[in-house]
Amino acid sequence: MSGDPENSEHPEPPERAATTVRADEFLAGLRDWLAIPSIGVDPAHHGDVARSAAWLAEALRADGWPDVRVWDEGPAQPAVYAHWPSADPDAPVVLVYGHHDVQPVDPVERWTRPPFAPTLVGEELFGRGASDDKGQVAMHLLGVRAHLAATGRTTPAVTLKLFVEGEEEGGSPHIARTLADHGADLDCDLVVFTDTPLYSREAPTVCTGQRGVYGAEVVLTGGVTDVHSGRAGGSIPNPATALARLVAALHDEDGRVQLPGFYDHVVLPTDVERADYASLPFDEEVWLTNSGRARGLSGETGWSTLERVWVRPTAEVNGLVAGYTGPGLKTVVPADARVKLSFRLVPGQRPEHVAEALRGFVDAHTPEGLRAEIVSRGDGVPPYAVDVAHPAVGAVRDALEGALGKPVRFSRTGGSGPAAVLHETLGVPVVYFGVALPDDNIHAPDERVVVPLLLSGAEALAVLWRTLPGRLAGGEPPA
Amino acid sequence: MSGDPENSEHPEPPERAATTVRADEFLAGLRDWLAIPSIGVDPAHHGDVARSAAWLAEALRADGWPDVRVWDEGPAQPAVYAHWPSADPDAPVVLVYGHHDVQPVDPVERWTRPPFAPTLVGEELFGRGASDDKGQVAMHLLGVRAHLAATGRTTPAVTLKLFVEGEEEGGSPHIARTLADHGADLDCDLVVFTDTPLYSREAPTVCTGQRGVYGAEVVLTGGVTDVHSGRAGGSIPNPATALARLVAALHDEDGRVQLPGFYDHVVLPTDVERADYASLPFDEEVWLTNSGRARGLSGETGWSTLERVWVRPTAEVNGLVAGYTGPGLKTVVPADARVKLSFRLVPGQRPEHVAEALRGFVDAHTPEGLRAEIVSRGDGVPPYAVDVAHPAVGAVRDALEGALGKPVRFSRTGGSGPAAVLHETLGVPVVYFGVALPDDNIHAPDERVVVPLLLSGAEALAVLWRTLPGRLAGGEPPA
Questions:
Q1: Residues in chain A with pLDDT values less than 70
Q2: Do B196 and B150 have their domain in common?
Q3: Beta bridge partners of B94
Q4: How far apart are CA A285 and CA B197, in angstroms?
Q5: Alpha-carbon distance B292 to A333, whole Å?
Q6: A234 vs B368: CB contact, 8 Å cut-off?
Q7: Do A393 and A250 fall within a single domain?
Q8: A311, A320, A366: best mutation site toward chain B, by most B Cβ within 10 Å?
Q9: Residues A312, B234: C-beta atoms closer than 8 Å
Q10: Confidence grade of residue B3 (pLDDT, cut at 50, 70, 90)
Q11: What's the confidence (pLDDT) of residue B173?
Q12: What span, in angstroms and rounded, lies between the C-alpha atoms of A41 and B458?
């Protein structure tokens, strides 16, 4: 639109040029960072998580952030904290949240490009973490530089704090402790949470909530060793069969989760949000392609696909294993069987309640002769949704509309993150700012990010830091 | 009892001394053989299967067998054939069946002794294959030598043929072809089948039947790649959940298998056999200990444990796997899920009927949006039971009673072997001769064999070859 006299009421914002001029440098830095395999859930990669934190800290210092620290305070994986006070003592204080740990890469044989040798193909940058979440954290660094360059300021118009943790993909198991230990450092008026996608490039959205998650591994144990099924088959309980019956009982025929009380306190989204969801273009083929090339939709009866993923809770099997899984036949009754389960939660649900309900459910579905154990994987992540009428939500939406040149609607995301913990601990609203795409293959082979979206995101952030003080002070958006 | 004048009506048979004198030499040879990891189902060990066959052929030649051949006629793993004609042209022709391939050793970390460095501890020889089946095949070699030495003969009283195959643990997938290709070589009046256990050392038995088995792997596939459960969880079918529901539907609440028609033609054992089963000492604790230290009994309602394992058919999960099974969490919806199933079959059932019923069952339990595939693992093994009134069964029982000094009752075994194929192809009865024990840990870590039982078994075989011609001719057992 820039330079078009018919759009003179929307002149090109100075933040755009300030972003574009730094694009090559931005990309080169991001590629260096993506080459570090910071898989936080894998102890073998904990050294890489530390290297990744050090890389980010150095990049922030090079950008002029006056106060940069690596919080390496085990058992938490290293986090990076940075602080850039505004010269205006009344400026709102904004805490940006992101993470620099990445998902494991298996099945690594399904990647068509190496996960940790970032490759630029056209507009796409491929590599583990390109979208989730290093690319979007790097976008913030660029956004701050563009904000300062575009406004000629030497300090940002808002006091900025950055908190980039190192174990989000493991469910942020120590974030509550970190927030408690660093309350003064992290004190703020607003959290900007960057780890969510747009609905699509064509129909961009601002996220207003994330599902929570509770994950646990259930282990059913019979004997101490696998036993020849000709020897004992038919005379002792088979843990794999019992596990299958337990998993089968998790849902009814309508796809509703059968943990007692699971739906008791679920809060539905507002009518405004549901109307936006219904108005978004939905292409079943694209959805399936982006869902690992699935063959068909399914889910809880009575809800649309977007509602099933954004505002309805679920129970999913993430993995299971028992007995002999190698080549050929081995006719054994397995000694044990294990399933990794995760429950996605929506506002009104709490991980601790689900954990308790699961314990009862497992006890009720463990037959005589087997022992059940639940290996909990942390406390889980509560769900979160922001009030869509909050002025910061409007400021984010307007900044994105300007940078993307398109209307921006409301969406949510079916993924999970520590937004609720940040909200509850810091006592402030959390708004979402993210430009990932649903087909970025996060948590899957061939993760990528669309580079022009990162650049538009940086531009929008630069605008956001300029406009946010007025919006939070009650000002209307510019006409 | 030997030398006791009160037992002069049971003088020590000459076969006992002829066996004992060769015990050390026997053990040394067996240990060499057990050191060869002839895992027939693992292509990485096919060279070892060939080495194992060569070892056996050489041992037979050294013992004086006049005609020894290795049948290495892919795709079948190498088998060993040997022939020692009796000088008596009217002597019955007996084919001894066994196998020299062994089970895989995983979970190898649960072995307390190395599986392929045979270790003698007191009366027990530990090593993969010690009991199943190399130890018992070696027992036959010793038995023939003892028979000749005890009788002063230069050829056995029966014409002996030996057929030791190399892929029994894989379900003998090519045995029908081998039997067809070598019909003249294998022509005989009786098969002596050696791959079964006694009920116990204290209550020895002669086996009269084995269950059959049909094994298959069922694969349910959704998409092409695992997908982030936050991204798509709740909106697409989860193959692991569907697989669990399929497995859960395999049995009803009474433990009865739900494949259509599964029980239609089942033949029950005779009253004589059921009375023997009921009279055998049964110690639940021992049974559980020998069943991988299981925690409790279970199975089809209305049948005893021995009946459940010996004369009732089953469906068992041998292994299953889906999604992420590594350390920590990975919240994915798996692309596929797979289960290895095996069905133990009893007389009246046929593997091909079960295969057909399974196909229908899987189709009926595959939800929309998933694709089902059944990876069949060969044609399966039919069940077999011998007529307990056959004179050869009596001859085996009497020979064992003499060697073991105890009454010998009837039992069966829940395992499977190619007895039915031998019976159907060669058109002759198959009798069982085995001295393994249920607690030999076959198909499990720390497999072992009780050496004195192998020696008593060799003695009984030496007696059997001497007495069998008369028994088959209609003679009564000696008073």
A1: 1-10, 377, 475-479
A2: yes
A3: B160, B190
A4: 58
A5: 9
A6: no
A7: no
A8: A320
A9: yes
A10: very low
A11: 86
A12: 58
